[in-house]
Write a structure and sequence with these properties.
Elements: E1 2-6, E2 9-11, E3 17-24, E4 30-38, E5 45-51, E6 56-58, E7 66-71, E8 76-81, E9 90-98, E10 103-105, E11 109-113
Parallel strand pairs: 2-11
Antiparallel strand pairs: 1-3, 3-8, 4-5, 4-9, 5-6, 7-8, 9-10, 9-11
Length: 115
């Protein structure tokens, strides 16, 4: 399985961005996908996840502002980010876990929230 993330950029506080993560390869082996982020000088942290049946979970810091969704026909997961804050600035990583427990990371996409 390979993951390709995109959609990052520069946005003003209060603005919105949508990140995309396209999966390729043995996609039917995936049972859980997530977004993580890593701010400068900080550890990577969990942001949001979605299961193979569509159940979502969010970090408290983004709950109510971020929405993770999927388009199975396009093998794509999305992270819609609204009401962005400067503290959301980070490199965002797409992650997948397969049914046999393999961990796959995509390359990061940088999000900068600044006026």
């Amino acid at each position: 399985v390979q993951l390709q993330a995109c959609g990052g950029g520069l946005v003003q506080p209060g603005g919105s961005l949508t990140l995309s993560c396209v999966a390729s390869g043995s996609i039917f082996s995936i049972d859980w996908m997530a977004w993580y982020r890593q701010a400068p000088g900080k550890q990577r942290e969990f942001v949001a996840s979605i299961t193979s049946v569509g159940n979502t979970n969010y970090a408290d810091s983004v709950k109510g502002r971020f929405t993770m969704s999927r388009d199975n026909a396009k093998y794509t997961k999305y992270l819609r980010m609204n009401s962005l804050k400067p503290e959301d600035t980070a490199v965002y990583f797409c992650y997948a876990r397969t049914r046999v427990g393999t961990h796959i990371w995509g390359q990061g996409t940088k999000v900068t929230v600044s006026s």
